């Protein structure tokens, strides 16, 4: 496993918000000729058309973005982005912030759930600690990050994605990060605060009330930023969320399909969607988290989760669990016999 503390300042791709905005607005498209080729083969395979349900669509999605009519999953990367949060001083998480660094060590020594799930999925796992795990500012009174801090974090995420990948899965670790995730969701979709605020790592009712109050205060403080998705991400997000946003943007520029993880990961890429309604076409949502706001967020973002397992761990765990599903989909598409090869009669009427 590679682990980085990601504080280098040289040749970062985004020196200004307008450079980042331009990269979000001008995005490559998938190759629709590939989906036609894949659909043609799918129709010849020894099963009623459509009978493998979403597995069929997943093969087409992988192929369109990889630009391969026989998509592959040789180079699969899970990267955990770790960061800390100034809002934790308001008691929004039951865990102390030093658990973020302790879990980073646990990832490095292969003791965490994601280490087992990544190995099972035959995926490479890296961890990147943002800002040396120094926390964001308390966003109830200041932007979570300065413009430079935000751009650096986005740039580090962007640069972390190697162009040769077949699939990229961002994960995250950050005590307190369900609060910025809920704040971003509420800032972009409104509704009632309590729709977005859940127990995270297990906070009690009083803690959930504190989280809601913190978010309400933060939105009042940053109301002037709410019409600009990048300023919202800078003001209400976090280092690891910004890095995830940058990484998912990079994957798009390299035509790499992405599996999104849980509530925090989904909220992290929401600014991309708000800037460009096609920005997440190269992604699929691996699972629906048990965290309260995730189902609503997925619906608002028109993301249809592949798995419902009651997970609420983060680390990229849901994405890791969906990788074997993608491998199964590819195995069927590439290795099944056609009707002709297996001498099976085709259907006689429609
Ligand atoms: O992925 C999810 O949906 C998810 C839901 C709840 C908690 N988490 C993880 O728990 C941590 C944040 O929870 P909290 O209570 O400290 O805000 C962070 O490290 C996340 O990876 C993750
Ligand atoms: C132990 C622990 C492991 C985690 N993994 C992701 N978030 C986490 C939060 C805690 C508290």
TrEMBL record:
Enzymatic reactions: 5,6-dimethylbenzimidazole + nicotinate beta-D-ribonucleotide = alpha-ribazole 5'-phosphate + nicotinate + H(+)
Protein name listed in UniProt: Nicotinate-nucleotide--dimethylbenzimidazole phosphoribosyltransferase
Pfam family, one: DBI_PRT
GO biological process terms, semicolon-separated: cobalamin biosynthetic process
Chain's role: Catalyzes the synthesis of alpha-ribazole-5'-phosphate from nicotinate mononucleotide (NAMN) and 5,6-dimethylbenzimidazole (DMB).
PANTHER family the UniProt entry points to: NICOTINATE-NUCLEOTIDE--DIMETHYLBENZIMIDAZOLE PHOSPHORIBOSYLTRANSFERASE
The EC number(s) this enzyme carries: 2.4.2.21
CDD domains linked: DMB-PRT_CobT
Keyword Nucleotide-binding recorded: no
Keyword tags: Cobalamin biosynthesis, Glycosyltransferase, Transferase
Metabolic or biological pathway, per its Swiss-Prot or TrEMBL entry: Nucleoside biosynthesis; alpha-ribazole biosynthesis; alpha-ribazole from 5,6-dimethylbenzimidazole: step 1/2
GO molecular function, one term: nicotinate-nucleotide-dimethylbenzimidazole phosphoribosyltransferase activity
Stated family: Belongs to the CobT family.
Uppermost EC category: transferase
Active-site feature positions: 315
Organism: Swingsia samuiensis
Gene3D superfamilies named in the record: 1.10.1610.10, 3.40.50.10210
Gene for this chain: cobT
């Amino acid at each position: 496993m590679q682990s980085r503390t990601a504080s280098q300042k040289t040749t970062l791709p985004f020196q200004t918000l307008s450079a980042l905005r331009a990269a979000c607005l001008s995005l490559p498209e998938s190759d629709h000729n590939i989906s036609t080729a894949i659909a043609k083969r799918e129709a010849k395979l020894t099963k009623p058309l459509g009978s493998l349900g979403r597995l069929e669509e997943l093969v087409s999605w992988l192929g369109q973005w990889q630009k391969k009519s026989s998509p592959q999953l040789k180079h699969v990367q899970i990267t955990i982005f770790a960061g800390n949060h100034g809002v934790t001083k308001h008691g929004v998480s039951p865990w102390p912030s030093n658990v973020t660094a302790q879990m980073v060590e646990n990832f490095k020594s292969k003791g965490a759930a994601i280490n087992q799930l990544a190995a099972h999925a035959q995926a490479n796992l890296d961890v990147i600690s943002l800002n040396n795990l120094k926390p964001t500012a308390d966003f109830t009174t200041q932007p979570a990050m300065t413009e430079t801090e935000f751009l650096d974090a986005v740039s580090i995420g962007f640069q972390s994605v190697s162009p040769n990948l077949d699939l990229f899965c961002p994960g995250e670790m950050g005590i307190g990060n369900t609060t910025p995730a809920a704040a971003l969701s509420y800032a972009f979709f409104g509704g009632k605060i309590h729709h977005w605020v859940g127990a995270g790592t297990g906070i009690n009712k009083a803690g959930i009330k504190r989280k809601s109050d913190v978010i309400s205060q933060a939105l009042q403080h940053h109301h002037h930023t709410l019409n600009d998705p990048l300023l919202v991400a800078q003001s209400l997000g976090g280092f690891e969320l910004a890095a995830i946003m940058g990484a998912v943007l990079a994957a798009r520029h390299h035509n790499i399909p992405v599996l999104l993880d849980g509530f925090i990961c989904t909220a992290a890429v929401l600014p991309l969607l708000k800037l460009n309604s096609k920005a997440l076409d190269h992604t699929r949502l691996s699972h629906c988290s048990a965290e309260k706001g995730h189902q609503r967020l997925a619906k608002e973002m028109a993301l249809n989760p592949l798995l419902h397992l009651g997970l609420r761990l983060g680390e990229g765990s849901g994405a890791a669990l969906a990788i074997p599903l993608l491998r199964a989909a590819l195995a069927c598409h590439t290795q099944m016999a056609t009707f002709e090869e297996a001498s099976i009669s085709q259907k006689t009427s429609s």
